[in-house]
Amino acid sequence: MPYGHQYIDESDVAAVAAALRGEWLTTGPTVAAFEAEIAAIAGTDDAVVVTSGTAALHVAYAAAGVTSGDQVIVPALTFAATASTASLLGAEIVFADVEEDTGNIDPESVAALATERTAVISAVDYAGHPADIDVLLPIARAAGALVLEDAAHSIGSTLRERPVGSLADLTTFSFFPTKNMTTAEGGAVVSNSEALITASRGFRGHGLVRDRAEQRYPNEGPWHQEIHKLGLNYRLPDVLCALGVNQIRRLAEFKASRTAVFERYQDGLGDLDGLTLPTKRSDVDPMWHLFPVRVHDGRRREVFERLREEGILVQVNYMPVYWHPYYEDLGYRRGLCPVAERYYSEEISLPMYAHLDASDQDRVIEALRSILA
User: Fold this and answer.
1) Beta strands 170-174 and 146-150: pairing type?
2) Quick check: keyword Magnesium in the entry (predicted)?
3) What is the pLDDT of residues 174-186, one digit of tens each?
């Protein structure tokens, strides 16, 4: 029993097969159709689809103009890509601590760290619970920075009845198989800023300029295209976008199923000593990607190993990013973000996916109860 799994049915297979039989395998009309579907879910004017959630972060940071000498604030409790894609652009990473209850970036920590060098404040919607972007935006504005919402876990979530995607200056999604919907590999950048969307689309396509009105040498010939700023090939093909279109149209179904899984865990584990369950604040409606529990009394490794021995393939999300040797070699040291480090030392992600069978979930609950009894 994995901790996360895609939910593919015959309608997904048919959508991909139709794309394979069509005229366009990539850079065709299904890309635009998928971007329109994402923008509608996110509450934005446009979206730019890319090859992965990591690519989405790289594109978003590039579109924000992140460069050498800039600082980017990220939460310590996240997958490394939230930081590494900014590092690749030359930014100095500043790690903020997280909130005890949600695992999301702590606005008080951000406020203490923001300076005139801060270019972007990145908030991760840990487990699917939206970060409080409304609190982060004024902190960013005071520093002259943008807010990026890393919503790899949270497409379909809302904060104060507004969809994730419409809250921050830039938002990125991931469509990896364990996420809330999938394109096998894929991601997206959304924004209500036309300038940021244009910059994102340019970086996704090598930075090529095809509009003659914007070219430096427009009379070179009808074939001519130019690069003014470097970009990369992060294009998501029509074949995968066809899967995405079909998946995103089932997002409400996926959300209802994941909510039912969340509530069953809450009912089955809520009275268990030695365990803290995830928090849901009253002003959010999460699309749950993870069900992170915190095991007390130094028993996390024991519980992890015993669950795996029973075929329950739990995971840990995540080791503080600055514990990775790459960042350690840059001078970051353990103890920097104590709440994130404590969270990591206790956290286990239980199986959470849309088609998790109730009997399998009961098996997880019974196994945990037996171990912690």
Assistant:
1) parallel
2) no
3) 999 999 999 999 9
